[in-house]
Design goal:
Blueprint (H helix, E strand, L loop, with lengths): L32 H14 L1 H21 L3 E10 L16 H9 L5 H8 L2 H11 L5 H5 L2 E5 L5 E8 L2 H59 L6 H38 L5 E3 L4 E3 L1 H23 L5 H19 L3 E3 L4 E3 L1 H33 L1 H5 L3 H36 L4 E5 L7 E3 L2 H26 L6 H8 L3 E6 L14 H18 L8 E5 L7 H14 L4 E5 L7 H5 L7 H5 L5 H4 L1 E2 L5 E4 L8 H6 L1 H13 L2 E5 L8 H8 L2 E7 L5 H12 L6 E9 L3 H9 L6 H5 L7
Parallel strand pairs: 10-17, 11-15, 11-16, 12-14, 12-15, 16-17
Antiparallel strand pairs: 1-3, 1-8, 1-9, 2-3, 4-7, 5-6, 13-14
């Protein structure tokens, strides 16, 4: 079927809206800001399949992990630090147990961070394991517990994670209770020391009291003494008070010494400091070694450009580099920059307790010494009394002193028991863990929302990363923006052959047919005078230049033109293979004079298209193509044919294509959407631009992937078939 287009002529009339002559442009034209938005939108459109796969994979992986991961429940207990008190210590201090008062007043001044460190200690976790009977170690339990202070407050949050909410709440509450008890025990320990001492002294004091009272009653009965005068009683009472005061001071001193010994033994087992906050920084030695390695590598690269690997300088630099790299591998990437240790609050409290006890011992000693001095001063008054009166007075004093000591010890014992049973920790539980308020992990809704967001971000990122590294040309806009060269046509990648060799008649074949006529029309109107000889080349082998050259020739012939296609790729000829005959006499034979042009030209099997194959392989193709013989051949071909299509070699490693482009009226660069990257295309343009005589008409974008929804409706609406499938099916194979 012939197309209803104006036939080609050798001298077509110029159009009114005549196009400018093609010019080389190695850089893209300046684009308005909207172009970037459009370009990125095209990237998203082009990479939508990849984005869909990445998005689905991320959502699927996160979803599988979310739904396959066993559920865990986290409950939290809240504690507040620095609230130490004792129900028996409210109001003014009782001075009977001054050490307890000092210890309690010294507590509650530590920061929440300090208590957080104490909560992390192994004995706490070990006690929780013991109380709950858990079948794990203390270290394993610590991995299930998170402890963190609330910034700017004295509140500490303690969370426990377990496979069921009830056990999680039990662990959290027990953990808090163990720590509270541990802090309370520290306060109660001083009361325990006092109780132990008092329990040994109370029976002795009670026995002394009974003995003294019995002796006084017996003496009064034997001697018939009922009572003493008021003045004598006052004097004897004063002496008895001094004796009692001295005895009590001695007793308090002995008690304090016993407690001091207990505190001193505890101090020997408690560390003075515990680890606080610490930070890490980049190892300066490693950074210095990296800089030295970079310097030596640069010196080695420079030396290798001037000398061989056996040169002494190169060998020396290699040795230095190996030594530096070995030393660098030994260095840690980071080191402790500011590792701080804070005072152990337990040790500080024990120290304060010891200082208070020492002060009490000193005060009790001074008080006993004063009482004895005052008692010595009363001796002359006592000796002046009658003998019986003195004896009654002595017995009365002993009985009174024994009673005072016993009463004091009994009161101290009661106070110590009260302090031990009612002492409160300086850490208080403000909110217990509740199984009903447990936080469930994984959170299906949150995780899937994160999966969707992460999937979208990774999909976008993967699209742009692939686009950055995939430097191929996908659309005509890519070619125009990145190369600045006009695009003559886009040729779609064709469908596959059937087992019989026939092509499946689809909309894409019809689109390809239309694309070749679009290319022919663009060549015709590329300038005021249509180019008669056209060299078709490409940046790389495999871009599809030979297929396009053959189909251009066929399309021109269908427009009533007589066309000769020359296979000028003398190194890797393919035209004879596409046409299905042997590579006999051809271009090289004509150029060396073995045969004439008329004898070498043969029918291609397509009406109006004749072909000149590459011919016998030549040892020096460049010399043949540069010579005047090729100029004469091209001139003779122009006289015999309307158009001459030259299938030129790829421009990659050889100069043949540039020579042919220079000798032809115009050149067409074929860029493959699946094979050509930006670097190869720019290198090809640089080669063509190096010769001022080259007229680069434009670029053909081959192997594109058109969208079915954009074209299929028109071509398939009436079940239309492409004539090229019947008339030129073999030629359309890409």
């Amino acid at each position: 079927m012939k197309r209803a287009l104006t036939p080609f002529s050798s001298n077509p009339a110029p159009l009114a809206d005549e196009r400018p002559q093609p010019v080389f442009a190695t850089t893209a034209s300046t684009a308005v800001p909207e172009v970037d938005v459009v370009r990125w939108w095209r990237v998203l459109q082009r990479r939508r399949t990849l984005m869909a796969i990445v998005f689905a994979a991320v959502v699927l992986v996160i979803g599988m992990v979310t739904f396959l991961k066993p559920k865990s429940y986290t409950t939290e207990v809240r504690l507040i630090a620095g609230t130490a008190s004792s129900s028996g210590q409210s109001g003014p201090s009782d001075q009977n147990l001054p050490v307890l008062d000092a210890l309690l007043s010294a507590r509650g001044t530590q920061s929440p961070e300090t208590y957080t460190e104490l909560l992390h200690e192994t004995p706490v976790a070990r006690e929780v394991v013991s109380r709950l009977g858990l079948n794990i170690t203390a270290y394993m339990l610590a991995a299930h517990v998170t402890i963190k202070p609330v910034t700017g407050t004295s509140i500490i949050g303690l969370g426990a994670t377990w496979s069921d909410p009830q056990t999680s709440a039990r662990i959290a509450n027990t953990y808090a209770n163990v720590f509270v008890d541990r802090e309370r025990n520290l306060i109660a320990h001083q009361a325990d020391s006092a109780i132990g001492f008092l329990q040994t002294q109370l029976p002795i004091a009670e026995q002394r009291l009974r003995t003294a009272q019995g002796a006084l009653a017996d003496y009064q009965t034997r001697n018939g003494i009922a009572d003493l005068s008021q003045q004598t009683q006052a004097q004897l009472a004063q002496v008895a008070a001094l004796d009692a005061k001295g005895s009590q001071a001695d007793l308090d001193s002995h008690q304090a010494q016993a407690q001091l010994q207990s505190v001193t033994s505890q101090l020997a087992t408690v560390p003075q400091t515990i680890e606080g906050e610490h930070s890490r920084t980049v190892n300066p030695v490693a950074s210095t070694l990296d800089q030295q390695i970079s310097t030596v590598r640069a010196q080695l690269d420079a030396a290798r450009k001037q000398y061989t690997d056996e040169y002494p300088t190169v060998i020396s630099l290699k040795g230095q580099l190996a030594s530096l790299e070995s030393e660098s591998h030994k260095q840690a990437a980071t080191v402790d920059a500011n590792s701080t240790r804070i005072p152990n609050p337990v040790y500080e409290q024990l120290q304060q307790q010891a200082a208070t006890l020492r002060a009490q011992i000193s005060a009790d000693g001074a008080q006993a010494s004063t009482a004895r001095s005052q008692r010595t001063a009363m001796d002359p008054i006592v000796r002046a009394l009658p003998e019986r009166t003195q004896r009654v007075g002595a017995l009365t004093r002993e009985a009174k002193a024994a009673e005072d000591v016993y009463n004091t010890l009994e009161k101290k014992y009661d106070d110590a028991m009260l302090s031990r049973t009612t002492a409160l920790s300086d850490v208080t539980i403000t909110q217990s863990a509740d199984p009903d308020s447990a936080v469930v992990q994984p959170n299906y809704i949150l995780n899937m929302a994160v999966a969707v967001i992460a999937g979208a971000l990774l999909a976008l990122g993967s699209a742009f990363v692939i686009e950055f590294f995939d430097d191929r040309f996908r659309t005509e806009e890519d070619v125009r923006e990145r190369l600045g060269i006009p695009v003559l046509a886009s040729i779609p990648a064709l469908t596959a052959m059937t087992h019989t060799g026939a092509r499946t008649g689809t909309w894409i074949d019809a689109l390809a047919y239309e694309s070749y006529f679009e290319l022919v029309t663009a060549l015709r109107y590329s300038s005021t005078e249509a180019p008669r000889s056209i060299a078709i080349t490409s940046p790389r082998q495999g871009d599809g230049k030979s297929t396009i050259a053959l189909n251009v020739a066929i399309s021109m012939a269908q427009l009533n033109a007589r066309v000769l296609i020359i296979d000028a790729d003398l190194r890797r000829p393919t035209l004879h293979t596409k046409l299905g005959f042997a590579n006999g006499k051809g271009l090289s034979d004509v150029l060396v004079g073995v045969c004439t042009l008329d004898a070498a030209v043969r029918e291609s099997g397509h009406p109006g298209v004749l072909t000149l194959t590459s011919g016998t392989r030549s040892p020096n193709p460049v010399a043949l193509l540069q010579g005047q013989a090729f100029d004469r051949l091209l001139l003779a071909a122009r006289e015999k044919f309307d158009f001459v299509i030259i299938d030129a070699p790829a421009l990659g490693p050889i100069i043949d294509g540039v020579i042919l482009a220079m000798k032809a009226d115009g050149a067409v660069l074929v860029v493959s959407a699946t094979n050509t990257d930006g670097r190869a295309a720019n290198n090809a343009l640089d080669k063509l631009a190096s010769v001022s005589a080259v007229n680069l008409i434009g670029v053909v974008l081959n192997h594109t992937k058109p969208e079915a929804h954009q074209y299929s409706e028109y071509y398939l609406a009436n079940g239309s078939q492409s004539p090229a499938i019947t008339d030129g099916g073999a030629a359309l194979s890409s």
